[in-house]
């Protein structure tokens, strides 16, 4: 697939943009439905490619998904635990949540290794160690992985790194395990709290999500539930960067500002003036931006997923900014693309040095991954002339109706 997005830059933006539900919560919540014995209704599922791929996996498992205008009704009552070996498994990283969910429900899962954005090495050893601690055996053969257990028994699991994926996968597998599972040094991201609150509505006993100690007391059955998914903090952060780049009083709505504290305080430090409401952020002005240093960290630190969208703002800021990646040391492919548009960024050693200010010029660039694509959109909106962003399918994986939302704000994108 080689779809492209064309943006003619330089237009001021104004008005309101409504943020969709969280991609990274939804991609855990859909596989979690495997654990239910009854129907689950989810409101405001985002219209993004990653969800389409997960729906294909649900269909393979004989789980029906009815898509209504504002909700998905998912019926897992006739679920069949089949081998997941289709291309859709490789399309996204989050297909690995079927490991935890199917292992939890059936004590057996066989599937392909997951795919997802190429951000450098992305091992899943912590997930597998967690499953083994619960009593499972892991076998790999080529690209296939098979995990099975006679029974799953709760255990204390210490994560060497507070991995989002490993925390979620262990939670999914442990919901039906006998006794208590404790995940120590668990990830604290808001998406984990959202999944835990949905599982608890279904009858699970999970305490401590959002802290570094999560306790799961096993139950024998989960019922259905109705769940509203939290807003996407990364989509929100991206539009706040867009508003800082080109906006005249743009309001970003359906936001939980507490999820964005690291970004908002960094933007404030750079000189962006904002009004922060209970569920919105309005960007008032962003003139003469100051350079700033950023270090990506686990939540509540500065999100690695916002490192790429904020980089174009650092490029137009006065002075030298430094970005250090502590989550994905190789997540800098956007810098070479931004340099094609006139940026002056030097990368190496998990760091980027950004010399500003520069003026962006339209160019032909490539979205090498989802958030790289988001960064290129921010730059393209500011650029003089036309930018073509190739491989835009990466962007559609995570940004709901992006062209429509940009054009509603007054951009010229197609
Ligand atoms: C989640 O990925 C998100 N994906 C990512 O979002 C996000 O960048 C990342 O968390 C960090 O916040 C989803 O939620 C689907 P990790 P995940 O396990 O779970 C290492 C986006 O743009 N690690 O917290 O894969 C790993 O290599 C994306 O929306 C191990 O070494 O992230 C990385 O360096 C991309 N062994 C670090 O931990 C493991 O077993 C963080 O990974 C697992 C992870």
Number of strands: 23
Shape, per Cα inertia axes: globular
Summarize the main sheet: 4 strands, mixed
How many helical stretches?
14
Please compute the radius of gyration using only Cα atoms: 21 Å
Bound small molecules, by name, code or SMILES, are: ligand EPZ
User: CA-to-CA gap between the ends?
Assistant: 17 Å
Percent helix, as a range, is 25-40%
Indicate the low-confidence ranges by residue numbers.
none
| Alpha-beta content class | alpha+beta
Strand order in space, largest sheet: 21-22-1-23
Q: Provide the β-strand percentage band.
A: 25-35%
Mean pLDDT: 96
Please sum up the structure shown.
33% of the residues lie in helices and 25% in strands. It is built from 14 helices and 23 strands.
Question: Explain this structure to me?
Answer:
The structure is a single chain. This protein has 414 residues and is of the alpha+beta class. 33% of the residues lie in helices and 25% in strands. It is built from 14 helices and 23 strands. It has helices spanning 23-32, 49-60, 87-91, 97-106, 125-133, 164-174, 190-201, 233-246, 261-270, 304-316, 333-340, 370-382, 393-396, 402-408, and strands at 5-8, 13-18, 40-43, 64-67, 71-75, 108-112, 137-141, 144-148, 156-158, 180-184, 205-207, 213-217, 225-228, 247-253, 273-276, 280-285, 293-295, 319-324, 345-348, 351-356, 364-366, 386-390, 412-413. The protein has a four-stranded mixed sheet with strand order 21-22-1-23. A four-stranded mixed sheet has the order 2-14-16-15. Strand 7 (137-141) and strand 8 (144-148) form a beta hairpin.
């Amino acid at each position: 697939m080689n779809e492209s997005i064309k943006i003619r830059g330089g237009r001021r933006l104004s008005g309101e943009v409504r943020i969709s539900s969280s991609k990274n919560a939804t991609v855990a919540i859909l596989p979690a439905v495997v654990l239910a014995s009854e129907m689950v209704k989810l409101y405001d599922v985002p219209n993004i490619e990653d969800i389409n791929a997960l729906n294909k996996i649900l269909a393979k498992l004989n789980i029906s998904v009815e898509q209504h205008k504002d909700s998905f009704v998912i019926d897992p009552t006739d679920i069949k635990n089949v081998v997941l070996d289709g291309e859709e498994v490789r399309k996204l990283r989050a297909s690995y949540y079927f490991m935890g969910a199917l292992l939890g429900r059936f004590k057996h899962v066989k599937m392909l290794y997951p795919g997802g954005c190429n951000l450098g090495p992305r091992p899943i050893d912590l997930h597998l160690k967690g499953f083994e601690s619960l009593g499972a055996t892991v076998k790999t053969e080529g690209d296939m992985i098979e995990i099975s257990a006679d029974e799953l028994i709760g255990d204390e699991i210490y994560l060497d790194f507070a991995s989002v994926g490993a925390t979620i996968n262990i939670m999914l597998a442990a919901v039906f395990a006998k006794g208590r599972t404790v995940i120590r040094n668990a990830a604290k991201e808001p998406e984990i709290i959202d999944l835990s609150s949905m599982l608890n509505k279904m009858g699970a006993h999970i305490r401590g999500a959002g802290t570094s100690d999560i306790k799961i007391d096993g139950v024998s059955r989960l019922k259905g539930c109705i769940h509203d998914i939290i807003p996407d903090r990364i989509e929100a952060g991206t539009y706040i960067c867009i508003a800082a780049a080109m906006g005249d009083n743009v309001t970003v709505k359906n936001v939980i500002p507490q999820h964005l504290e690291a970004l908002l305080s960094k933007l404030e430090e750079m000189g962006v003036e904002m009004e922060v409401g209970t569920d919105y952020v309005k960007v008032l002005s962003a003139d003469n931006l100051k350079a700033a240093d950023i270090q990506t960290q686990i939540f509540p630190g500065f999100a690695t997923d916002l490192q790429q969208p904020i980089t174009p703002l650092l490029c137009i800021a006065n002075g030298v900014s430094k970005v250090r990646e502590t989550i994905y040391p190789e997540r800098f492919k956007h810098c070479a693309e931004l340099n094609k548009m006139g940026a002056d960024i030097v990368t190496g050693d998990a760091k980027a040095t950004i010399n500003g200010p520069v003026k962006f010029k339209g160019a032909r660039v490539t979205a090498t991954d989802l958030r790289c694509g988001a960064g290129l959109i921010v730059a393209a909106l500011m650029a003089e002339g036309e930018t073509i962003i190739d491989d835009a399918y990466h962007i559609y994986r995570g940004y709901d109706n992006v062209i429509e939302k940009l054009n509603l704000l007054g951009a010229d994108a197609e």
